[in-house]
Recover the amino acids of this structure.
């Protein structure tokens, strides 16, 4: 056996010491793969090879985390949508799976095989469900309800994430700077803590953040060795869906793996668009110092790019056609809502810091607590770039209570030099340094006691630099 493979397999066996493995010590599917011990809240995993090999390594190395993540996802999906797990498994098998191309179907099967080798009870359909879960609610569930005559007020896409990308005269060195924080419900967001280094047999090498068991980033911050770096924010108040389209998680992974330009990334994302998990994508090519914005609805699509300027995202729809036709309930003139308040803050920060934006400043933006509507600093809430929805005081009536335990759960940033060397910086938890304590929250908000088995503490960690790595 080659020394690199032997060392990698030794690391695997050491990691799972005391747990019976169901693969032989020289299983070729594990060649070159490894995971590192947790670092400041993150788990780094290196995967390489064919789709089936990458999948197997993913499932095998992260089996405990994937099982745990799936437990969270199935709990929240079934509780929030009042539908049984069988409903979502059926959708995974009959709506999403048929539209997944061979290479990613093989990778998903590989994850299932790796999980099985480690003793997990999850099967292939569970893995597909996990990957499609972001698209299932509200996008697929709303569509299904309408098709079956169930009339209710749509559950518009929640407001997730704050992000920006800038270049040219707006940055300190005239080159690309990009940053993003992931807004999620805390039970799932606390588990969005993997750094994936993927060296596929076809396409480009990828460095991205991710959630255990997903083949794409999911919250979408990643870069490839062609110099492309991407992120996105969800389009709020959107819930369109086309069951004949290609799943968003497939297109997002494919675009990250194969794009060599801003235009190619946008083209792959648009091809076969199913409308689910509709996002405003912020894209950069560090080799050309070019940035792009792709606002991807179902039928309404807006694409812009520039070599001097910025794009920001905070869940607001921007294209008038998309607002009129696909987000008609969006309160465009209400500056008190999160998306609009954060957009105002982004524009303030860009204007105030033109020509000075660098990596350190990008990291500072992710911790920003200025409420542009109330015109108050140090006021963390759903209206601040570092979102703290759990701290949003509303009122005494039930419908005026905080939205729940949600907000910014982790952060990523990079500049052109880092992307050129396949590096990124990441901070788990709130970038401001505030910790979230589950027991304290549940005591104060007993209506969320159904989350007792899945909600856990989310501590803030310092910014940490990650790089691609070779087999150890």
């Amino acid at each position: 056996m080659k020394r690199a493979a032997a060392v990698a397999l030794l690391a695997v066996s050491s990691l799972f010491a005391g747990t019976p493995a169901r693969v032989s010590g020289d299983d070729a599917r594990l060649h070159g793969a490894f995971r590192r011990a947790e670092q400041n809240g993150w788990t780094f995993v290196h995967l390489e090879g064919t789709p089936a090999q990458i999948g197997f390594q993913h499932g095998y190395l992260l089996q405990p985390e994937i099982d745990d993540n799936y437990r969270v996802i199935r709990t929240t999906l079934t509780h929030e949508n009042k539908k049984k797990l069988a409903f979502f498994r059926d959708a995974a098998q009959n709506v999403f799976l048929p539209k997944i191309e061979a290479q990613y179907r093989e990778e998903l099967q590989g994850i299932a095989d790796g999980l099985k080798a480690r003793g997990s009870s999850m099967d292939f359909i569970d893995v597909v469900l996990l990957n499609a879960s972001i698209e299932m609610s509200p996008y697929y569930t709303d569509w299904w309800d309408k098709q079956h005559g169930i009339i209710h007020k749509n559950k518009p896409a929640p407001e997730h994430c704050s992000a920006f990308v800038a270049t040219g005269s707006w940055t300190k060195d005239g080159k690309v700077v990009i940053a993003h924080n992931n807004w999620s419900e805390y039970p799932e967001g606390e588990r969005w803590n993997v750094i994936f280094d993927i060296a596929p047999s076809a396409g480009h090498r990828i460095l991205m953040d991710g959630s255990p068991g997903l083949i794409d980033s999911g919250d979408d911050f990643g870069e490839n060795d062609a110099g492309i770096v991407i992120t996105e924010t969800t389009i709020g108040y959107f819930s369109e869906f086309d069951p004949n389209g290609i799943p968003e998680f497939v297109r997002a992974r494919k675009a990250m793996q194969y794009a060599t330009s801003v235009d190619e990334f946008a083209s792959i994302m648009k091809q076969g668009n199913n409308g689910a998990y509709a996002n405003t994508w912020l894209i950069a090519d560090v080799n050309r110092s070019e940035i792009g914005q792709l606002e991807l609805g179902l039928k309404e699509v807006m694409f812009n790019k520039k070599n001097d300027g910025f794009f920001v995202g905070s869940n607001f729809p921007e294209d008038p056609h998309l607002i009129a036709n696909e987000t008609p309930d969006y309160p465009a003139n209400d500056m008190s809502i999160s998306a609009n308040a954060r957009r105002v803050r982004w524009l303030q920060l860009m204007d105030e810091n033109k020509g000075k934006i660098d990596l350190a400043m990008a990291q500072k933006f992710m911790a920003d607590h200025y409420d542009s509507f109330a015109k108050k600093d140090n006021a963390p809430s759903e209206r601040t770039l570092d979102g703290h929805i759990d701290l949003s005081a509303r009122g005494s009536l039930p419908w005026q209570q905080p939205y729940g335990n949600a907000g910014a759960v982790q952060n990523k940033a990079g500049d052109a030099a880092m992307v050129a060397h396949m590096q990124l910086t990441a901070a788990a938890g709130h970038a401001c340094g505030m910790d979230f304590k589950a027991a304290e929250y549940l005591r104060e908000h007993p209506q969320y006691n159904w989350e007792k088995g899945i909600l856990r503490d989310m501590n803030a960690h310092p910014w940490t630099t990650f790089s691609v790595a070779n087999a150890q």
User: Anything to note?
Assistant: The two ends are 14 Å apart (CA to CA).
